[in-house]
Amino acid sequence: MCYKNYETEGLTCMLVFIIIAAVLGMFQFGYNTGVVNAPQIIIQEFISDIYKKRTGNDITDGFNELIWSITVSIFAIGGMVGGISGGTIANRFGRKGGLLLNNIFAILGGALMGLSKVSHSIEMLIIGRLIIGFNCGLNTALVPMYLSEISPVSIRGGLGTEEGWPYLLAIAIIPAVLQLCLLPLCPESPRFLLISKQQEFRAREGLKRLRNSSNIEKDIEEMKAEERANQYEVKITMMELIKNKKLQLPLLIGVIMQLSQQLSGINAVFYYSTGLFVAAGLSEETSKYATIGVGSVMVIMTLVSIPLMDRAGRRTLHLYGLGGMFIFSIFITISLLVKFLYSWVTYLSVVSTLGYVVFFAIGPGSIPWMITAELFSQGPRPAAMSIAVLVNWLANFVVGLVFPHMQKGLSDYTFLPFTALLAIFWTFTYKKVPETRNKTFEEISALFRRDEVLNANGTNIDTTSRYRFSEGPITEKSETYGTFSQFGDGLPTQDHHL
Questions:
Q1: Treating both helix axes as pointing N-terminal to C-terminal, what angle do 40-55 and 266-279 enclose, rounded to 10 degrees?
Q2: What SS3 class is residue 65?
Q3: pLDDT in tens, 95-113
């Protein structure tokens, strides 16, 4: 049977410890996405110097820009490969084991980047970015999967100088070493142990540590309910997932959510904000400080968004985030267009960019990862996460490679394509994305089992639709849908409650 709205122990010391240990991996993603931003000019000078030493000729601006674009965007190529590998590694080594193994790539990538200057090697810099990208791709697949499976239902949700930039890039080693020290103290995902490995004793022991209580029977029953539903659901490959008609809607939602993160234009800010501020009229020195401010705001607001996720809901926060980014992207365009009229307009660009980042952190920064992991049950989840991460990193790569050319071609109108995309993503989220807050994995899966899904956000219910469950009777009670009692393949009876 499926349990709904049961009481949980909530955050315990062990759960907080695990979240900190696991999220170190996501720090790699955010940090390495934007770390090349501030020292861009200095690294391009490094590229020019190495080229001249090797060939005796000065590098052309176009070729230098090409190498720089490759250095920035190859990070996303590594991320795509890592993302595709996430499901396989999660199933073979476990969620925690995969995260531990992944730190080897972080240390290797950070070392190559950190030693690239002393070795006079552009190739080491590029290969290091590729490897650290692979590490971040794996993290974006493994960390949300691990956290969504260990959390109770109620809460599942100054070195940019010529001498200093290699150390700036090598900092990626630090969170990897910290994670290697902390993760061995954490339990494996109890859901993975119980459902995938059939190790109920280890799952129970892990749950006791996570909940800091021996009262874990409701958690176990919820997992067993998912396990029973999964008896007819084998682990599937990415291609099988794509062809499965019953899973195509949640997969589409997961993919669009990932695109809403990357095609929102945020990486244009992370990769090139220093150049944007210079274009808006700020001095190079002031632009670097503004870029540091952008990064700091991102970190602070990401921490703020975590408790909001389980209070306001995933869908609501995502709508607020996309809406805020839409408004501030317009202000960024205005600031670029009228920068010559008033001196204070240059600071409008900084305020607009900070607002843009604030709303990204509130919604698109973290919500897509959580929702994608929550939309699928244990069987298809690894394949779904692999596809979602692949799409995310492909979009990341496209933005990183294309944005410099967009700047040249569109000039002050560079952000208008992102403004249009944000409007499209907001509309899709409003019409199709369901709320997953306080729902078990089985209940979320049940949202997509109707023959017709008229409106996935729950505001329009088709009472003639049928549910298909692998076994019954099952009683579903949802804040969004009311109470449904389903016996066999008969029609559901609905008991609305307010």
A1: 90
A2: helix
A3: 888 888 998 998 999 999 9
